[in-house]
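Reviewer 2 asked us to include a model.

Predict the structure of this chain.
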Amino acid sequence: MPVIMNEVKSMMGISDESQVPAATEAEIPEFGANDLKGLTWKNILDAYTCTECGRCTAACPANITGKKLSPRKIVMDVRDRAEDIGNKLASKDTQYIGEQFKGDGVKLSAKNFNDGKSLFDYITDEEIYACTTCNACVEECPVMINPLDIILQLRRYRILTDSAGPSDWMPMFTSLENSGCVWQMQDLREQWTRQ
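Predicted model (structure tokens):
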């Protein structure tokens, strides 16, 4: 992600003329995905391709240890959300036009659609934070679906855009942002090399 890489480079004092300009104060970038518009076409196609065999969930160590995560459910929730959006778009009901797009003669389309819901109405934070990113679900899938990509996009949105996350993780992120180091040390990160 070029925007994040540029932020890290500027934090570490590395200059690079080829870097993409960082977002201005008025333009806050959105990272990850909170709904289908943020996912790739492949993620949505994967949701329809899923054979619902459950091998991904059976291989998931988080699920095996009793956590709420089910990669199969994540993929099915993406499909259910896509079906929901498709049905609402097919209805051509103007109540689903986003407030900023409403006006006389405006017709419902995918570009102005907003029903006030997101994937987080289907998938809980507990599910996306339970993932260990071990890739077992991806390796186990017989039709090569990648539920991990969807989970990471949702997690990225929650942490980078909403500034929300598990309470155990937030001090690490704050420390990394402030001092460039996950451990809360007062010294500069490379101070030990000068001694």
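The chain has a mean pLDDT of 83. The chain has one domain: 30-186. We have added this to the supplementary material.
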